[in-house]
Structures are given as structure tokens and as C-alpha cells.
Specification:
4-stranded parallel sheet; 20 helices; binds FE2/S2 (inorganic) cluster
Amino acid sequence: MTELRSRRWFADEDKPGFVGRSWLKNQGLPDHVFDGRPVIGICNTWSELTPCNGHFRVLAEFVRRGVYEAGGLPLEFPAMSLGESLMRPTTMLYRNLASMEIEETIRGNPLDGVVLLTGCDKTTPACLMGAASVDLPTIVVNGGPMLNGKFRGRDIGSGTDVWRLSDDLRVGRISMEDYQDAESCMSRSDGHCMTMGTASTMACMVEALGLTLPGAAAIPAADSRRRRLAHLSGGRIVEMVREDLRMSQILTRPALENAIRVNAAVGGSTNFVVHLLAIAGRLDLPLELDDFDRLGSKMPLLVNLMPSGDYLMEDFFYAGGLPVVIRQLKDSLHMDAPTVNGGTLAENTANAENFNREVIADLDEPFQRGAGLSILRGNLCPDGAVIKPSAASPALQQHRGRAVVFEDIDDYHTRIDDPDLDVAPDSVLVLKQVGPRGFPGMPEVGNFNLPKKLLLQGVEDMVRISDGRMSGTAFGAVVLHVAPESALGGALALVRNGDEIELDVPARRLQLLVSDEELQRRRQVWQPRPVESLRGYSKLYVEHVEQADRGADFDFLRGGSGAEVVHSGH
Ligand code: FES
């Protein structure tokens, strides 16, 4: 074992060593814990403001047990928590900030290895981005999904059924009393959203990347096996430090390719794209937007979970979970990829068994063929846009319609339910100013509700286009992440009411059917909106955030800084 970096703090016999040891002793630590054992940071994104991570203090205790048992010293630290359900204007604005906090906390302290406690959507990429920038031995313990929602005899899914129920309420299909009753029926246990939303997508992503113990993604938060997993992960991270098995040895280009293919097979969220691009960027790994289409779009959909399907994460766990999917995809994956437990993907999934073919399909009878995310190009999105065909109405995937334009989210809210809104079922709804810079923060508004008057006619889906994101729990013919964004004068900024737009998902095309000359004329008179007077973090964000096709990370965070601390102030 190479010398532990924590020894630079605790082996010092002079004043800095005295300070490091003495102050920790005020926590009741005896002398012998400074004997050269691995020091493990437990990065805890617990917060009462992040209900999805509300059980993490308990989970951290189980990690701690495992670390002690394996002969390590656990030191838990809090990290900025990003709660999707409460935080405004959008947690995406703060993903990069949280990652920076985590990076600097890991590097600046006497840690030899790290356990990342992740759950609610952005807590996973923020933790991975921060930890990858330092590159110590790292293992992820995700918090697990909630139990299935149960409402009047049927299962309801986080998010996905919120969209359905809110449309039902708007057009009077259900009463306010029923709507409120559904609130407590939907979220009835610890854990994150139990659809294949962004949190579950991220959990599958980290398992496919090899950064969790096998089978971690789907274990419900309320199941005792979640706590066992935390305990075992605590033990394993100590061994990883002894083996010097660092994050960059697991998070490699083949691992990224595996994650993209697995994401397609589970029907994962479109948010996967911006987060994986940002994570890869921290290790300077090559990854392009088109890789998601090239590697993923031909993959079969094997998992029947909302929003693309019918079931929920608890069902996925009982059916066998992600190891079953990985095993079935073995001919498409790099099965020799190493993982945190020391085994390869092949070794970890060799005995995986499918217990429910309604939830996990066999490879020769998938729920859908060619189900991965599609990357669109065209004059409306020269740097790309994303659509999730498995969640979109098939009839709308080749569609031409007249644009109905909303200049920003306030304009949308003001006019969407106006009975005089000039809109038809075949219109294409366009929303501007919701990109990384324009909003700022690229919120999840891309799946915006349809006009009430069309809902009342029974219209269930329409083509919607924006430079924003969509909740992973949502569905619809929704084109997202248009780059360059409208706030930068991308072609989206030039769209006017009545313009024809053509979406052709099979051809990967999104075209504004306006002549180049006319677009040039419009571009010459286009004016950027005056930037609001921003200060502090928002100012930093707007000045440095990259476009969606680069992962919406900060331009100065590409590549890591490693674990070295150059100077000591002690
Ligand atoms: Fe936290 Fe959905 S709100 S995972």
C-alpha cells in the first residue's frame, strides 16, 4: 500500500500533527485511531430540505459500521444538498456549486477514500463531479427509491402521476379532495422518486459505471438490504484505499459507453445526457453528444417502468434489478470493465436472474426496439437537441406544424390557458429563454402543460421544443436542450408565431422551415435581453456555464485538479 495521504496530517510530530489530532480528539477519538488506518470521508447530502435524502443520517451510520469493521476511520461531512421538490429557481443552477464544494472539501481534508451518499436527482452528479475532480478511491451509496405509491387500488408513480393528476384536475376529471389525497399516497416512505426519473436514472448510471456494489440501484430505501449495502460499502472502501483503486480506474471511456447503453435499456431520463457529459469532463474523458445516439439509440427497451412503461422501482428490484439488464446486454457492453467491488461487470452479473418478465423483458422480446435517446440536428439546433422517443407519442415523431411561440416562462404562464390562444392540436409549441444562461439554470420546464382548451378536446400530446430540460418522470413529444440556446441568439431565438417546424426523429432532424435569407434578416435585428443585475454565484454561473451539449458545467472545471494540496496554512 502506498503511503496514505492522511499521514501528511496525522503522522506529523510537530505542531500541525498536534492540531489535527488534538481537535479531533474533542470528538472522543482515542490515540490509536491515528495509527495509519485509512481515513474515510462520508459525504452526506442529508437535509430536511431534500426529503428524498431524509434518511441519510441513518444510512451514514451503517457506512460508519462497515468502515470501522474493516479497520478504517470514518469521518462524516455534510455537503450542499439539492432537493428537487423544494429548491428554487432550479437545482440545476446549483449542481456545479455543490460539486465545487464537494471537490474542495475532499481535497482539503485528511481523507484517503470517500463514500458518496447520493439520492435526489442532482445530488448524484454533483457528488460524482466533485469526487472525480480529486480522484481518490470512491464508492457511491445511493439512498434508494420510495416504495410504490398506492392510490385507490392502483400504483402511482412520483412525478409521472403528478403530471397526469394535475391535467385531470385542470379539466375537472378529479376533485381537489382526490388530488390532495393522492399527495400522501404517492410519497409514503423514505427514498427518492420511484419512477425511472432522474434519481433512478442516476442510480442505474452509477451502478452501470461500476461505482456501486452490484445490485445497488433498485433496492428500496425502506428495505433493510439498503442498510446492509451501506454497511458493506463502508467495508469495501477501506479495502479500495489499501488497493489504491481510484475513481479514474473505474470511470473510463468503456464505462461511459456501458452507462449510455444501459440508460437506453432502462428508459432513463434525458437529464442523463447533461450529467454524464459533465462527469466525463471532470476526468477529461472524450464524450460527445452524438455518442449518446450512436451508442444508445439502437438499444432495446428492457425495463417497463414509468414514465415509458407501467411499473415502478420496487417492482424492478423484485424482478432482479439492474444486474439482470446488464447480463442481458452482455454482448453490447464492455463486460470486462472493473467495478468498485474488485470484480468485473461480467463477474458481478453472472448469476443474475429475471423473476418477472412483465417488468424486465428478455432481449429477444423487448418492450420496444431502438429505444435510446435521439440526438437531433438541423438549422434549429446546429449544436444538437435531445428527445426521448420511448416517452413520446409515436404519431408525433414525424410531424410538421405551425409554431406557437412563448418568449419566456412568464409569457407561457400568462397565455397558455387563454381561450383566444391561436393553437391547434398539430401546432408546435416553442418555449424560449429556459437554457443554461437564459433562465438561468436550465430548469425542468420542457414538458410544459398543453393548452387547457386542447386538453378539454382530449389532446394528450403535442410537439414541444425548448432549450430547457424535462423532469425524468415526464413524458411527451418533447424536444429539449436545444443548443445554442435562445438567450445566446441560437436559431430558437428567431422562431416566430406561424413559422413551420419539422420534426423527424427517425431522420434525427429538427428544421425551422424558414429561408436562410429570412433567418439572416431576423438575426440582424435580434437583440439579446439585457442581463439582469446578478451578483455572487448566479453571476459566476452565467459568465461561465457551458451549453447543454457540453454538459452545462463551468468552463474552468474541465479536467480535475487531483488530490494534492500544494501549500499548508498550518
Ligand atoms: Fe427527489 Fe424526485 S424529488 S428524486
